[in-house]
Design goal:
Elements (H helix, E strand, L loop, with lengths): L6 H6 L2 H7 L5 H16 L4 H19 L6 H12 L3 H12 L6 H13 L4 H43 L3 H47 L10 H18 L3 E8 L2 H8 L1 H16 L6 E7 L2 E7 L3 H16 L2 E4 L4 E5 L2 E7 L6 H17 L5 E3 L1
């Protein structure tokens, strides 16, 4: 994460600028935005429609201001950054402006290419194998059914002949031959069906493991972004029905790029693990933590108002900031490592995604205000 943003840079060339906060990213601007929303609500304005309109305007201005092509990939990336569904990209864009590098098409193409390369298609491959196996199993079942039907037809014909022909010896001999042939066919079909069943069982087990793995971040062992979104949807519905408070929070390691550049990526990974373990210490059935990507974590607090969630997270932040770290590879002291966060009341916004976006903006204000702090949206 980069250094504190200069206000002149954030006024027109930052993500918050395109989000309708041109001029300042301070708490006063946030307060003005909240007052505007309250006035709109009092006047009966359709806040959902207004939010969508602002999102469209932000995406359009972002693409046009930076000379970017109007392509599906660019629109998808811009939507992720401005809607709050991809806070990591939002912070990457902010970092580009803070360092004066700006945004251009080659950079955005590389970001899109990285996202595509990082897609885990193992689950899709397993599903494909599972579907193919089901198709083979269906064919085996159909073959068994056809063979049985044919055998039944032939048997009926010979039974009918028994009533009409006095020489039953030839008929019985034919019946024995048919039964022998049918037995051989049945055994082959049974073997095929047994193999298909064993393969299907193995694939079901692999699919179950893949689904679990697809929802776990392998560096920290925490749920990943995909799993968190499922949890958020579930608790949103349940808390809404039970009229319970629900809060979300974004956390981000302070000066993480400096840690990586100074001490290496292995040490950076261990810092991510350490913060993940600390956040996990306050999690339970009603408090969930997940790694959202990179140095970012996201949390869900069921049954806690935003101010209560902020207090709990701030207490954890204070304890963590008092620890001293050492690079285990070089024994070089790393000193204090901190993180910042933003917390939002889910039901204070039009939907859960809007609340996530608000929490991310509160996190950004925490970074601007000096880091190592938890801001309330």
């Amino acid at each position: 994460m980069s250094t504190t943003t200069d206000k002149s840079a954030s006024s027109s060339g930052s993500l918050l600028g395109w989000l309708g906060r041109r001029g300042s990213a301070s708490k006063d601007a946030s307060s003005d935005s909240a007052n505007g929303a309250a006035a709109a609500a009092a006047g009966g304005m359709d806040l959902g429609k207004e939010t969508r309109r602002q999102l469209m305007e932000s995406i359009t201005e972002f693409l046009l201001d930076n000379g970017l092509e109007i392509t599906p990939a660019n629109l998808l990336a811009a939507h992720g950054a401005f809607s709050g569904s991809n806070p990591r990209l939002a912070r990457q864009i902010n970092r580009r402006f803070e360092t004066g590098e700006g945004i251009d098409q080659p950079w955005l193409d590389e970001v899109n290419a990285d996202a595509e390369r990082n897609k885990d298609d193992s689950l899709e491959r397993l599903i494909s194998r599972f579907e193919n196996n089901l198709e083979v199993f269906a064919k085996s079942t159909k073959a068994a059914s056809t063979a049985t039907q044919n055998y039944g037809v032939e048997l009926e014909q010979h039974v009918a002949e028994l009533d009409q022909i006095s020489d039953t010896g030839m008929i019985i001999s034919n019946l024995a031959e048919i039964a022998k042939t049918m037995l051989e066919r049945t055994r082959k079909v049974e073997d095929s069906m047994r193999r298909s069943e064993e393969e299907a069982k193995s694939l079901r087990q692999s699919l179950a493991r893949a689904k679990r793995d697809a929802e776990i971040d392998h560096l920290t062992g925490l749920p990943n972004r995909r799993a968190f979104e499922t949890l958020l949807d579930k608790h949103y519905r349940e808390a809404q029905a039970a009229i319970e408070p629900l809060s979300v929070a974004f956390c981000d390691i302070d000066h993480f790029k400096r840690i990586n550049d100074t001490h290496g990526h292995d040490t950076g990974d261990r810092v991510i693990q350490a913060i993940g373990e600390s956040l996990s210490a306050i999690s339970n059935d009603n408090c969930h933590v997940a790694r959202h990507g990179g140095e970012e974590f996201v949390m869900l607090f069921r049954g806690l108002a935003a101010a209560q969630a902020q207090k709990r997270l701030d207490e954890l932040r204070e304890r963590f900031s008092q620890r001293s770290f050492v690079n285990r590879d070089t024994d070089e002291p790393m000193g204090q490592i901190t993180f910042s966060g933003g917390v939002a009341d889910v039901f204070g916004y039009t939907d859960a995604r809007a609340a996530l976006k608000a929490a991310d903006e509160a996190l950004y204000r925490a970074k601007e205000s000096g880091r190592n702090r938890i801001e309330l949206a």
